[in-house]
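#structure-requests
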Amino acid sequence: MLDNYTNDISELLIKYMDNELSPDEKTAVEKMLHEDADVNERYQHLLAAKQAIRHQNLKQRVRLVHDEYISERANNINITKTKTPSIFKTFMRVAAVFIAVIAGYGVFEYSTTTTQSIFNDNYISYQLPVNRGADETDEIDSLYAAKNYTAVVNAFEQIPQKSQEDYFIAGQSYLSLDNTDKAIKCFLDVKKINNSSAQKYFVDETDYYLALAYLKAGNIDEAENLLNKITADKQNLYYKKAKDISGYKLRILKLKK
């Protein structure tokens, strides 16, 4: 016999995934995902299946089997329990397709997921909001806006008293130059100054880009810790970006490591 509760939850999660719920329903599902590990795991499996269909062009195949299942279920809805095996058989065909899809998707994801691929998918070049005023920082801002990252780090080294902003821009420039070690050091310096200063700058930005730098450097645990910190705060400027970095892919990176 099919588990009606499980089916209802799956249908609700699919509607949530396809953005077909009312605001109140959406809030309820998000609360459930946050509080119920089993439901969250089921949702991750559904997401994986959806992405696999997209990647492997199996959407049409699954749709045909799904339509067959819906049609047969409608035709048999009022018949006796002796016909149940027919419905179950069709359901199992649907399940078999999804199992095959997920298995194929797992192989695909494992082979294509790398620290660089996740970095590339989630990195966005930071745009400075305003000029900051002082001669040295004006020069760095202009060089950074011109994407002259080598000149930025050279100018940065000449500043005698560096601020959070200076370290942050230098970190961004080192990241663009593929010098992740120095990028990480600069972002950590931003955090260090913020922790001891009444005036805090680039707090959310630093956490997100430091997480990406850790990913690029292969430090998955530190990256995951920062991403968890960001996603625990819905007011964080990078909440959605951090949420988009799949925990499933981070687990793949750990396995590869």
